[in-house]
Amino acid sequence: MQWTSRELLLGFTTGIAVTLVLDQVRRYVTSPYFGRRHTHSQAQAKSGTSSSSADSIRPAGSGIESTIGNTPLIVIPSLSKVTGCTIYAKAEFLNGAGNSPKDRVALSIITRAESQGLLTPHGGDTVYEGTSGSTGISLATLCRARGYLAHICMPSDQSHEKSNLLLKLGAIVERVTPAPIVDQAHFVNRARILADQHTADPTRPGRGYFANQFETEANWRAHYEGTGPEILAQTENKVDAFVAGAGTGGTLSGVAMALKEQLDNVKIVLADPQGSGLYNKVQHGVMFHSLEREGTRRRDQVDSIVEGIGLTRSTANFEQGRELIDEAVKITDAQAKNMARWLVEQDGIFVGSSSAVNCVGALQTAIKLGPGHSVVTIL
């Protein structure tokens, strides 16, 4: 049988095409990508899960509010390695409004006020708050999103970066000279007075609402209902200690309540910066010397670089969970600065002063507990 030139050409071309296809198949099968996909498919087949259910992707949400909560829990490799423990950090800086745990609090305060008819979106209302910065940033962002004006009173010794950011977010900012809480010029008292004056003035649009982060139940409940249960789920209920500082006390109290309900032996540890009186309150039952009645302390707070945590008085939010705190540790500025440098150099984690205090406290707690334990803190 003789082949025509056309048939020979067709056969030759087909052979080349088949060879090329087989070569591509060989490259794909031997590639790392195929190995990962094949392993993943086998794991899914064994577990009976589909790709969509296996990958827990957050669905699309509505507005900046939908980015708050369900933050990742990460292991801090360097601290875990040196202690032999697993030291976790709840990545609260990934909350999407103000990039801090205060996002939860601000959202809780606003939504509860709305449900009670105390705030009306886009109704000309103003939210007043006294804050050292983080809560103000969260409130200012959410007020923008929900149609309110934010009026923030903050101590003048706080960083200008915070007040400048607040201004860019559209808030009114008053930098108030530091004063004791018994003084009506104290930044918290100033915010309360302004809210009352606004509401009482019939010539002003809307109402004034005092957020009252230090005393409101909405604060600790945000962490009791959110942060605490998330930690339990992410660790599969394996937490030996939770360590955090206290600014209002809401995070520590709310998380402590949630953890203690599920874990009988979990330790709750307060990490307190220098200049704060909460360490003494936990360890000795009194804020200061017995000759100084609590709440009347008029001398200046001891200087500290740490912003956002540490108090020279107790609050309703701190008292909510104080009896659940097992221990307090005092953290110096030098320790906080060294920890901040360590984390960025060893783990690529860039944190501020309050998060650094939390991590020093977590490190000390892990060393005290010994290898094999799990410690959780907040960033």
From TrEMBL:
<dbReference type="GO" id="GO:0006535">
    <property type="term" value="P:cysteine biosynthetic process from serine"/>
</dbReference>
<keyword id="KW-0808">Transferase</keyword>
<dbReference type="InterPro" id="IPR001216">
    <property type="entry name" value="P-phosphate_BS"/>
</dbReference>
<keyword id="KW-0663">Pyridoxal phosphate</keyword>
<feature type="compositionally biased region" description="Low complexity">
    <location>
        <begin position="41"/>
        <end position="56"/>
    </location>
</feature>
<keyword id="KW-0198">Cysteine biosynthesis</keyword>
<dbReference type="GO" id="GO:0016740">
    <property type="term" value="F:transferase activity"/>
</dbReference>
<dbReference type="InterPro" id="IPR036052">
    <property type="entry name" value="TrpB-like_PALP_sf"/>
</dbReference>
<dbReference type="InterPro" id="IPR001926">
    <property type="entry name" value="TrpB-like_PALP"/>
</dbReference>
<comment type="similarity">
    <text>Belongs to the cysteine synthase/cystathionine beta-synthase family.</text>
</comment>
<keyword id="KW-0028">Amino-acid biosynthesis</keyword>
<feature type="domain" description="Tryptophan synthase beta chain-like PALP">
    <location>
        <begin position="65"/>
        <end position="379"/>
    </location>
</feature>
<dbReference type="InterPro" id="IPR050214">
    <property type="entry name" value="Cys_Synth/Cystath_Beta-Synth"/>
</dbReference>
<dbReference type="Pfam" id="PF00291">
    <property type="entry name" value="PALP"/>
</dbReference>
<protein>
    <recommendedName>
        <fullName>Tryptophan synthase beta chain-like PALP domain-containing protein</fullName>
    </recommendedName>
</protein>
<feature type="region of interest" description="Disordered">
    <location>
        <begin position="39"/>
        <end position="63"/>
    </location>
</feature>
